[in-house]
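Q: Is it fine to ask for two folds in a single conversation?
A: Yes, each is treated on its own. Send the first.
Q: Here.
A: Result:
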Amino acid sequence: MSGHSEDPIAEESKRFFTFFNLSMLLVAITGIEIVIIYVQTFDGASIIGVLFATSIVKFVGVVTWFMHLKWDKILNTILFLMGLVIAVFTFFAVIYMSDDPPKVIEFNVASVENDWSADAGYSSGDYVKIDDSYFLCLSDHSSPSPSPTEKSSSPTWEKVNGVPHEFNWKVSTGDLIEINSLKPENPFFHHYNPVVSVENDWSAETDYSSGDYVKIDDSYFLCLSDHSSPSPSPTEKSSSPTWEKVNGVPHDNDNIEGSLISVLEKKASTEDFRIKVRSEAFWVENN
């Protein structure tokens, strides 16, 4: 007699199916998360809330069953949770101490009110207005220019359905910018990562300060000390303390400015839109 009240083979088989069912559940939850992210049926705050909740569910499932805490001593669970709490608080403390909250310095949305004139020159991508209709310029041309009438078959102009609007913004810093309409009947959504590479070609006749980045061919160098022209070349094999080669591409995410023109279904103003800026620790929007 073994002294065990349960068959060890049956117990292992039960655990196997528990692991299998849990893994299928985790796969299903991950699929739901992917759909929510790409379909974007909710606003940004709701998406983050749903993803946070599903992540907690997956985390509990993994540490309880796959890390065997369910069958270990309660002391192991307590030690694990203590380390987890300390790690989480340390992470957020470091992030908040090293990150500055972004600020929306300027944000404007206005319809394009550029009345067409036969005596003006136009470039491809320009929008003009005739009465209550808007037209898109398809090719560069100088005055006198053909009239972009609604029935015109000229390849110079194309009538657009809707009202073109110009979006302009300036923020102090940020890793992600998102602009969306507050009115469902006039939809608009735009987001991007404002990554600006430093394209400062090195010149021997230029003064440089510590912290400056320069580019030579496809390589980037960091200036380590102030020096005046003529300055030593920051070659890759240079042993000079003036320059240091960096791995990667330096970027500047401060004082980000941008603009775009988009055709909306209806005429709108700045109050009809929201701009949100995210940094490592903060997520702010215009008031």
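Q: Second one now.
A: Result:
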Amino acid sequence: MSENLQLSKDVYSRLEDVAKRIESVTGKKPNIDQVIMTLIDVYSKGPTIEAGRIDMLIDIWDKVQNLEKRVAKLEQPQSQTTVSPQPATRHDAVSQTQPTRQPVVVAPKPVLQQTVADKSAAPTQDKFMEFMQSVVAYPMDKLRKSREQIDKMVKEGTFEIMSVGGQEILIYKPTLQEFLKKLPFPISDKQKLTQKERRLLETLSSAGLVFEDAVTGNIREA
């Protein structure tokens, strides 16, 4: 039996944002019911859900909240300068009693052209790059990029491919390099890692590149 669920405009708008982000990754825009089911999966199935989906949704909420804060600041009323009225002169009094015809000047309207020029000059965002920066590590067989495109980005130094349990994993290299600079560090500091860093640590551990050294009590490179 189905039931109707009433959503506030704010909640519906957030769900639409999630749907657009999912569309940018999968190429297919889900409806609101599918978005809600995805959110339920993420927070109910625990470790069986892909970590990339969790980070993607968390990043979306963070961006929406930051955008709301910026909009709230822009909508704050600006202080207006009060202009003291000037005493009327004899000329003003005559002008009020004897109105004169003033020529009408039509100003040009370059606003639309400027807007179009700005839009054409604005660089298009690489949604794939944004996604990889948010998830850091992702299975190659689930990406919607051709192998030729990925190999090109690997040669450029943007990504690195690792083999984990017979599966190829694409790694965002700048985040990987920053993480490796932290090694070695105490095993107890694992709780201080971000979600991206924890997932990256799991990937590197599965690939046999880092391990927990029981003798020193540190996590270090193999």
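Q: Anything structural to flag on that second result?
A: Two points. Confidence is low (pLDDT under 50) at residues 111-125. The chain is about 50% helix and 10% strand.
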